[in-house]
Amino acid sequence: MKQAANIEIPETLKEICDPRRMALVVYDMQIGILRQIKNPDEIVSRVARVLAAARAAGVRVFFMRHMSLPKELMGAFQYRMAMAWQRLDDPTAVDPWFLRDSPGFDITPELKPLPSEAIFDKITMSALEGTPLPIALRDCGITAIALVGVAIEIGIEPTARHAADLGLIPVIIENACGGGHAEAAARSIEALKFAGDAVITDIDSFCRALA
Fold this sequence. Notes:
Elements: E1 2-4, E2 7-9, H1 13-16, E3 22-27, H2 31-34, H3 40-57, E4 60-66, H4 76-86, E5 118-122, H5 133-139, E6 144-150, H6 152-165, E7 169-178, H7 182-195, E8 199-201, H8 203-210
Parallel strand pairs: 3-4, 3-6, 4-5, 6-7, 7-8
Antiparallel strand pairs: 1-2
């Protein structure tokens, strides 16, 4: 641990992964989203390993879910995003895939949240925009967040960048993050490495740091 101006600056992964000061954010591991990636079972298994290690170490856990709005409440951004995802030119043809209580909305049952864990819904890409997550993290004295889930190129990268802007250390467990597009996911990781804000690690290293 380094110090400057009476501030502790964590340097190693083990120092960052202090269960008192780090939370695990499980991003969009929803039934309907997992259906859209090529290796859902593998990603679920890998996220489950991280989740088990975090729970054993007493790390606080937050689950994020992407939520669609009814068409009557959708604005220009929501329509544009839905049209891009659904490859449509006509906004009237948009089908809100992730309405609350729809079949694809729930977290996959293999990762069922515990009563001691929170689920926050969002309509944005960053988990930290328009959700209670930043308040909850700040209130608990959290200084780092570990990120797992899908998709790295859609939501995990903007969440990591947003976290850094809020003064949080983003820890991306790369092999526990799935992607919908392999090349785009690889570009996201390279861009995050270049920026230097995030710590990029793997499941084994993360679990060792917690242990």
